[in-house]
UniProtKB/TrEMBL annotation:
It comes from freshwater metagenome. SUPFAM superfamilies: Cgl1923-like (SSF159659). This is Unannotated protein. InterPro entries: Proteasome_assmbl_chaperone_2 (IPR019151), PSMG2_sf (IPR038389), Rv2714-like (IPR008492).
Length: 287
């Protein structure tokens, strides 16, 4: 790993997302890409720095994750290699700063890769790590995107009223990083968005929005959403239009809606309204 600088950050939280197996419809990386872009362009004294980047030669199979060729504004061809970058965000208006880790899921040497990520987390004195993922599931696009939040940290579980994951089966690199957090005693949290499996194409702004709102809720911060809610609404309307053009898909969506509505309880709807009100208050307090 090439470490460019170690900035002084206030009680930082590290957010991690990787494209690939852990990233249905690119909702997870889409969420962190949005977070990075809006704060890089912010006028609120936000300072964004590139802290480190992982050497792609060590962890990527270029036949699996191929480099990309593009043409820049000067009509020069540029080659971009797959990799992982680590950014620091100093947020004066927030109580904590953030560290953003985003990139392509590595092809090999996952143990060494996760050690490098956790080593830099230790160097930055990160107080908590949040991994962000998205999976395709039997969920209707017309209902709120379900976010599954779990933790293996007893302190985090007690503080945020969360349970350990009960999942058993294949895992991705964020599962390996979560395991490393447990072994090192780093507090951690895992967030997963349930993306409708019949709408798997990227981007999925509604799922990205749901992940960002979950991050807001668990960290007690306010993230500039800009036009993301409008994009989420447009995405939902587009999927609804496409589904209506196929009778079988339209009927299937109706069955998913009925199943979803049958298991949702009034208390859950009330909790959603309460969280939305808390977000509203945070935004207006910061203004």
């Amino acid at each position: 790993m090439e470490i460019l600088q170690i900035p002084i950050l206030r009680d930082p939280v590290m957010l991690i997302a990787f494209s690939g197996w852990n990233d249905g419809a690119e909702a997870a990386t889409g969420a962190l890409d949005h977070l990075l872009s809006v704060w890089k362009e912010s006028k609120d004294d936000v300072v964004s720095v590139l802290i480190a980047q992982v050497d792609s030669e060590d962890f990527y199979d270029y036949q699996v994750s191929r480099p990309q060729v593009s043409v820049n504004e000067s009509s020069q061809r540029e080659l971009t290699w797959p990799g992982t970058q680590i950014f620091g965000l100093s947020l004066p208006s927030m109580k904590q700063d953030l560290v953003i880790v985003t990139g392509v899921e590595p092809s090999m040497r996952w143990k060494s890769f996760s050690r490098e990520i956790l080593d830099i987390a230790d160097d930055l004195e990160v107080s908590m790590i949040i991994t962000v993922g998205a999976m395709l599931s039997d969920s209707p696009h017309t209902r709120p995107i379900k976010i599954i939040a779990t933790t293996s940290s007893a302190n985090v579980g007690a503080r945020l009223d969360l349970q350990p994951s009960t999942y058993q089966g294949p895992t991705g690199i964020i599962g390996v990083i979560q395991d490393g957090c447990t072994k090192r005693g780093i507090e951690s949290l895992s967030l997963w968005a349930s993306v409708p499996h019949y709408a798997p194409n990227a981007p999925s702004p509604k799922a990205s929005l749901a992940l960002l709102q979950a991050i807001e809720d668990y960290l007690g911060i306010s993230i500039p959403l800009t036009d993301l809610p409008d994009s989420a609404q447009a995405w939902e309307e587009s999927v609804t239009q496409l589904a209506s053009e196929d009778a079988d898909i339209a009927e299937y969506v109706k069955s998913l809606e009925a199943s979803k509505d049958a298991v949702d309880i009034p208390e859950a709807s009330g909790e959603t309204i309460a969280k939305e009100f808390e977000r509203y208050l945070r935004r207006h307090q910061e203004e």
